[in-house]
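User: Can you write out an input/output pair for a complex, sequences first and structure second?

Assistant: Here is one pair. Inputs:
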Amino acid sequence: MKDALRSAFFIALKDMKAYYFKPPNISWGMLFPLVFILAFYLRSPVDFAHLIPGLLSLSLLFSTTSMEAIVITFERMTGALERLMLYPVSVTTILVGKISGGACFGITVTIVFLLGLIILFPFHLENPLLFFVSVVISSFTFSALGAFVSVSVKQVFEAQTLANLFRFPMIFLSGVFIPVHSLPSIVKPIAYLMPLTYSIDSIKVSFGYRPQITHPLLSLLVLAVFAFVFLGLSVKILKGRMS
Amino acid sequence: MIGEIKRFLSGDDVVTVKELRKSYNTFPALDGISFSIRKGEVFGLLGPNGAGKTTTIKILSGLSMPASGTAKILGYDVVSNPVIVKKNIGVVPETSNLYPELTCFDNLIFAGRLYGIGTKKVKARADELLHLFSLEEKGDVLFGKLSSGMKRRLTVAASIIHNPPVLFFDEPTTGLDVMSARALREIIQSLKNRGITILLTTHYIEEADRLCDRIAIIVKGKIITIATPEALKKSVSTERAVDVKISPYPPFIEEEFSKITTAVKYEKREDMFRFFINDLNAFLSEISAFIKGKGLSIEAVRTVTPSLEDAFVQITGMKREIMVQEKGGGK
């Protein structure tokens, strides 16, 4: 276990060193969330403060899933992922490393956005600890979702396109702009199946809003379950490709 | 675990493969191959592209699962003990697939870390390997900026960073220029001299002849024969042949050779003619008089001993050109 965690750490470190500034990562992982934030500020500067928790969660979703598209799909294309499998580490360890690298990228991008927003629109973070824990758990969950998408395809652009199939519905159904309780009852169940819903809810609580879905601790637990499910599915798919 | 491996190494076979089968969809990539590799031996899998060589290496290195059969390295089954097996092997894949975004030094450090080598030790080992492979000047250079020969050398270095007792080379010199290929063959020879057991796949007959202690000829997923290069050459039916180069070379002469009674048959080979004969003295007398009678002269005569290429052609029944064809172009 200790050796596996150590190996996962080195894989994550290597991914951060090698891929943080790859063009698709910059465009989808950093610029896209930034443009999104700016667009919503320009549209409605007065209501913008209400959107901040949702937009931060959204930036986490895009940055982590974009990073996974690079570190997994790109490495599959170049043969580097196959090389990684030659080392004495399990497929699970490799994916945990890759997910951790993506999560660290997401956390970094989100913290930078948070600091920028605090400087531009001074607001009070009610529960910094809950915010931090929510960001960390959400980033691992979204990164695992990115891994699940990336192991299923062959090209980076396919990974980004497939990821958008998950990402775009989440933007509209997970409570970024429209609270989940205000959604038509026919789409509400879909919102409950989306990890972004729970991430936004717990981050909103850390900003001082009342929870709309459930208690933040339960939201975090649901996110953790999502993370393990995505990890398990990714391991299964990658192993299946080997056999 | 080290004790078990030491005990195993006191025996003979380091790699044992029994009735290994693998199919891709309905195409049988491996059709029940069996072989074993002795300690310190360089064992070659020789065959054309698509023969099953890379599939064998992939199964032995834990990258692919066999449909049936067993493969053991140092006594450990590659399917049930992949992590222990991987700790004891080094693999040099066909493509030099280290990380182009990392420096040579960082690539070696990363490889060493994943083999569980500590910080101090891995740095010293990386320096040692950069020196050993004449890449000490390139430590801070990105892997992606190296020439193909240097990339290959660093890939070999990364594969032996943990001092594995067993090393696999998959088509080691494919795509390399002559000088880099020669340098790599010298590296393989020096690794053998250090006692490392080596399995290499190649479709270059000359390479197999030069490097391997024993060769398995593999065609369409089946091993046809396993023997030393010398034994393979001896197994070729001893049809005596003489290469003759004449000067000048008039175009009509080729047909005229049919009149030589001491030659069973003849064929044009580059700038020479190869005559298959029964009696060397009688042939030399006749060809000498024949050439002189035509007002020509003999520039060179060479008796032909069977080569590994001749053995391969005779054993497999394949054309020699098939082995010259290379994935993605010529050598």
